[in-house]
């Protein structure tokens, strides 16, 4: 589970690429509020996940994260309000 958060809050595309390769994941659901108006909250999940997420986010503005603004070609679904479904292969390959 920690690896999922490592990828979700990655500032380096290589972390996402490694996650996709190692887990076989094809897609990731992104909750937009995690990188917008609720970015600065201090409680996300139960421990040990909450502390891990806070460490990943420390010192980074929301816009630095890979999933804060995924390229349009990688977003296969966007409900225009809350969620995006991101194709990790399209995210991690040059098109």
Provide an overview of this structure:
- This protein has one domain (2-90).
- With 95 residues, it is of the alpha+beta class.
- The N and C termini lie far apart (30 Å).
- It has a 3-stranded antiparallel sheet.
- The radius of gyration is 13 Å and the shape is globular.
- It is built from 4 helices and 3 strands, in the order H-H-E-H-E-E-H.
Give descriptors for this structure.
3 strands; 95 residues
Summarize the structure.
With 95 residues, the chain is α+β, with helices and mostly antiparallel strands. The chain has four helices and three strands.
Uncertain segments of ≥5 residues (pLDDT<50)?
none
Strands across the major sheet, in which order? 1-3-2
State the order of secondary-structure elements, H for helix, E for strand. HHEHEEH
Radius of gyration: 13 Å
Instruction: Count every beta strand, where a strand is a DSSP E run of 2 or more residues.
Output: 3
Q: Which quaternary structure do these chains form?
A: single chain
The largest sheet, given as strand count, sense and whether it forms a barrel, is:
3 strands, antiparallel
Please give the share of residues in helix. Answer: 25-40%
Strand content: 5-15%
What best-fitting shape do the alpha-carbon axes yield? globular
Quickly count the domains.
Answer: 1
**What structural class should be given to the helix and strand makeup?**
alpha+beta
């Amino acid at each position: 589970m920690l690896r999922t958060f490592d990828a979700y809050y990655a500032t380096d595309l290589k972390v996402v690429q490694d996650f996709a390769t190692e887990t076989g994941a094809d897609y990731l659901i992104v909750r937009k509020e995690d990188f917008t108006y609720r970015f600065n909250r201090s409680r996300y999940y139960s421990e040990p996940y909450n502390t891990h997420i806070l460490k990943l986010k420390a010192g980074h503005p929301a816009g630095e994260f890979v999933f804060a603004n995924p390229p349009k070609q990688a977003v296969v679904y966007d409900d225009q309000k809350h969620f995006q479904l991101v194709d990790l292969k399209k995210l991690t390959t040059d098109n």
